[in-house]
Amino acid sequence: MFENEELRLNIENFSNLGYGIARRDGQVVFVSNACPGDEVDVKIDKVCKNYVYASTQKVITPSPHRTESVCPLQKVCGSCQLGFIDYEYQLELKRQNVEDAMRKIGGLEVEVNQPVPSPQTLHYRHKIQYPVSETKNSKRILAGYYKQKTHEIVNIKYCPVQPSICDDIVEFIRNKAFDFGISGFNEKKHSGDLRHIVLRVSADSGKVLVTLVVNATQSFARLRDFAQSIYDEFDVVSGVCANFNPKKTNVILGEKSECLCGKDYIIERILGKTFKIGANTFFQINPKSAENIFAYVKKHISENFDRPTVLDAYSGVSAFGITVSDAAQMVVCVEENTSSCNLAHEIARENKVKNIEINNMDAGKFFAREERKFDVVILDPPRSGCTQESLDNALKVCTGQIIYVSCNPATLARDLKYLTEKGAKISGSIQPFDMFCHTYHIENVAIIDIV
């Protein structure tokens, strides 16, 4: 096979990154926008040593699970990779991917339940992060998601997986930025003002926090005036913040933010608890699905422990710690981000949660120094998973169960393999939750017995 060659293929399987899988001449072909059961004409995009990438050009015989795309831009936008597959089958494909990761990466034969579906499959995404650039000649602002495997921005005017108010706010920013002398970012030259638009929308109130990520170290008059115009235009905007990120990096948010007008947070409610979410605060993008996960973890703790001591590692704004506090004797939270910890203290006070201790430090360092024992340890790490040192320390301080919440089946399988090799045992089955509809991503909760 060679680049630009055209082939007709039968899609046999599905990859963990959302590609259909076919085989030709002993090689695996990963095909974009293809579903198991499809017969498709494809064009070869890239030839590697042991596999090939291709893109669907025409569907000859559609899979029974192929459906009308959720979005007309689905083929070019890199966001909703599974948007052309019926939702029930999306869930099954994700379940299979988790099962495959457990077996192939972890060497584990463990039951994987059907994913708990998202309460909403459209308008569910309550955190929006659009990269920004501008056209070469007219200097018109472009904002949207990147095309797959590129840094070319798809200028998105309508996105069905986010609240419609986001489209309106982004369109206003596109149209009005030029009036205030706000330029789009040029990634190659590292020039221009506006790098990203970040929106946080409360599923509870509908209020929106707008954050303008700028290529600067401090605010300036044009930016402040622009922020005020956004705030004045939309009643649902609770505030407009600037985040300063002048570094040459792919990291979206810089360390410093400033509220330019209004409030620097929105309010979200989960399981009867109230949470403040700021510009730099990590919080799940799908609050209704997140509530299902919190309820699952809280129910498990309530039914299997009598007022336990709980350690919430990688705690962010202590969302797990605060939501399970009613079922615990004491909750100890650990988070290295200072602004998240400050917000966690405030959230705990406002929810009148008194049986909580919040530690602002790296989880690994906390584990290394900690001498107390905990009945339950909740691990909710980033996509990279836990370090072996953190897993060792979790085993050291836990006397009952580790509840591992993961957004990456591959690193979950790797870490479960390590824990079982150290003598721990997976309890029951793994429970996936669909947090990211129409994408290949899937959240999972695994319960690990300390034996």
What does this structure look like?
With 451 residues, the protein is of the alpha+beta class. The protein has three domains: 6-66, OB fold (Dihydrolipoamide Acetyltransferase, E2P) (Beta Barrel), CATH 2.40.50; 99-119 and 286-449, Vaccinia Virus protein VP39 (Rossmann fold, 3-Layer(aba) Sandwich); 127-270, OB fold (Dihydrolipoamide Acetyltransferase, E2P), CATH 2.40.50.1070. Helices cover 25% and strands 31% of the residues. The protein contains nine helices and 23 strands. Strands 16, 17, 18, 19, 20, 21, 22 and 23 form an eight-stranded mixed sheet that branches. It has a seven-stranded mixed sheet with strand order 9-8-7-10-11-12-13, covered by helices on one side. The chain has a six-stranded mixed sheet with strand order 1-5-6-4-3-2, with no helix packed on it. A hairpin with a 5-residue loop joins strand 2 and strand 3 (20-24). The radius of gyration is 23 Å and the shape is globular. It starts with 5 loop residues before the first strand and ends with a strand.
Protein topology:
Blueprint: E1 6-10, E2 13-14, E3 20-24, E4 27-32, E5 39-47, E6 51-61, H1 87-104, E7 127-134, E8 141-146, E9 153-155, H2 164-176, E10 194-201, E11 208-214, H3 221-233, E12 237-244, E13 256-262, E14 265-270, E15 273-278, H4 287-304, E16 309-313, H5 319-324, E17 330-335, H6 338-350, E18 356-360, H7 363-369, E19 374-379, H8 388-397, E20 398-406, H9 409-421, E21 425-426, E22 431-433, E23 443-449
Parallel strand pairs: 4-6, 11-12, 16-17, 16-19, 17-18, 19-20
Antiparallel strand pairs: 1-5, 2-3, 3-4, 5-6, 7-8, 7-10, 8-9, 10-11, 12-13, 14-15, 20-23, 21-23, 22-23
Helix pairs in contact: 1-9, 7-8
